[in-house]
Structures are given as C-alpha cells and as structure tokens.
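Ticket #4471: structure output looks truncated?

Reporter: J.K.
Steps to reproduce: submitted the chain below (385 residues) through the standard prediction queue, then opened the result file.
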Amino acid sequence: MQPELPFSGLFVLELASVLAGPSVGQFFAELGAEVVKIENTATQGDVTRKWKAATEDPDTDISAYFSCANWGKKSVALDLKNPEGLAVVYRLVQKADIVIASYKPGDAEKLQVDYETLSGINPKLLYGSITGYGPEVARAGYDAVIQAESGLMYLNGQPDGEPTKMPVAFVDLLAAHQLKEGLLTALYMRERTGKGTLVQISLLDAALTSLANQGTNYLVAGLNPQRTGSEHPNIVPYGTIFKTSDQKQLILAIGDDRQFQHLCEVLGAPELASNPLFNRNNARVKNRIVLNEKLKELIAGFNQAELLAELERRFVPAGAVKDVQEALSGKAAQELKLQAKKNGKLLVGMKTVAFKLQNLPNAELLPPPHFGENTVEVLENHLVK
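Returned output as attached by the reporter:
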C-alpha cells in the first residue's frame, strides 16, 4: 500500500496573493493538503494573473507568474465585503486547519478575517500572516522596496555601479520559507497542546535575518559591507567570474587553502599556492586584485568544459555560468518540473518542494486554476450537508 502524503487530510484556506503567501499554499498542496484559494471578485482574483511576459497568451488568466505559486489549488471567487461571501469564509474556517493571509495591517480587521475573529470561530486554527513591516506598521510591503531598505539591494551590484535589485523576488520567497517554518512549528505545537495560534512574519524581518554573514561583518567586526560584485567579502577566490579561451564564463568557489592549492596545480601554476601573498585565505582577501588578475590570465588559456572537468576531478569547486534556459534544461531541473494538460493546453511549472523525503510518494497536482473555477465544487463539498 502506497503511503499517504504528509499533509493528506489537512485543509488550508489561502487569503493571500502575489508570491509569498501563495508559495506557502503550494508547498502544502504539493505535500497532500487540500488548498482552497479565496480570490476577490472585485479584482478578478490574484493580481499576478495579469502579470504577463510579452510572449504570453493575452486571453488566459493563468499567467506564467501565477503558475509559479498556484499549482495544486482550488479557486473560489468571493466578495468578502458582501455578508454572504464572508459567511462562506466563516463556514470554511470551521473546517480549516490553516489560514494563510497577506493583508496590509488593518485590512484583515476591516474585512473581519483577522486572527482574533477567525480563531473565535475555530480555536484550533493556525493563522499564518505575512506583512511588509510587521503588524504595527500600516504600510504595504513590496519586495523591491524591502530589498532597498534592508541593505540587500545596496550590497548587490558591481563596486563601481548602482545598487541592483535581485532579479527574483527573493524577499517574498525568504518570507515564505519563514512562514512555512512557523506553521510547521505551530502544527507540532498543536499536536501537543490541541491549541491553535497566530504565526507572523514580515518581509523586512525575513530580509534582515537573511543578511547572514554580511550582517555580522558589521555587528561583530564593525565593517559596513560594500558592493563587491559577485565576489565574497571574506573568501577569495569565491564567486569570482572568469572567462575561458572559448569565451565562456565560469565561477570559482574556493573555500579553503587546500582547494586553492589544487586549483593552482590544475592551472599549471603551483607556485601561487606557496606565495606568501596568496597561501592563506586572509592573505588572498588582502591581495584579491593581484590574485584575480593572475587567475584571469591563467584561466583564459583553457577550454571551459575541459577545465571544469579537471577541477571537478580534483574536487575544486567551480561551475559554468548558465542562463535560465540552460539551467532548466539540465537533469536536476527535470525532477522539479510540473506539467499537466488543461483544456487541451499543456501547462508547466516548478515545484516548491525540492527536498527528498524517504518513502514520500509522488503527488498528482492539479494545474493552476482559472479564477473561480472551483467555487461550486468547494461549496458543495464543504458547505452542503
């Protein structure tokens, strides 16, 4: 008998849009939960349905952006400002295990779908809330703005260039991971106590805690980090990009002196590893400009594929710089792709669950729903006695 998915039988209501909250919803759906996405009739649903690339079908409401975080869900169209719509949500809350919400502070209270209200209906409810700056700041949170205000954007880019926003809404994704961790912790607590709880994360908090070593470079060492391109402030050569003889790029990630010694041997310059200017990491950090110029000259004499193969053989961390098409064409990406036919069209996407769990069965996920596609089905299944 095939084992059940971990969250089989779990009922999740998603009162969230865009990326952070919906990513959490898809996570639970991929692992077996029934996830019902409540979409606003006044806006024709999640705003990302309309966020389309120039090459997309203008007539579909399932955009590529919407597809990145809404597999496995059922869409119910409701107007929460209408008493009848709100009553439907309340009846669904009675059966729900988790609510995922992403409202600007104060808005959930105005709509009467805040934690205090919903936990009064279902005391065992777990309520996961994402805000921009925390529950006390009535300011909407946007990934690009948080990247700027958290220091992440300032650190990203070339030393002589402008601060650069990261090309993916990483703060949204970081907040999603934090909320997942909080909800999983809350699920464990509920198993022990039988009580529901409120789980909160702000985009700003998620971004600040993700400064990691750059943050402690300032807090511990008093160093205010600056832009270094793709290079690492504490390790050299790490993140440095070089070009090979066939005009292709590769990146090095040398984490210790032994790896640096092997790199120099592969490049035919073992003397670099014994040079006092480069033989220890702290020396390489101080002399990174000189070292990078020497490595640039050496690497330019090698073919990319041949050099990477030899570096791998010697356990030297390195890799080719690939574009998205190349990355998603690789073997590893194939196991993470989702695909299903809907109305005769093939829809594709990516999993949010990348970890491997022993004996975890494969889930048959529903493709992303059209706006309100499952309204009648959900209401009949959950509300009709």
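Triage note (M.O.): checked the attachment and the full token line is present. The chain has two domains: 11-210+331-382, 238-243+249-320.
Status: closed, working as intended.
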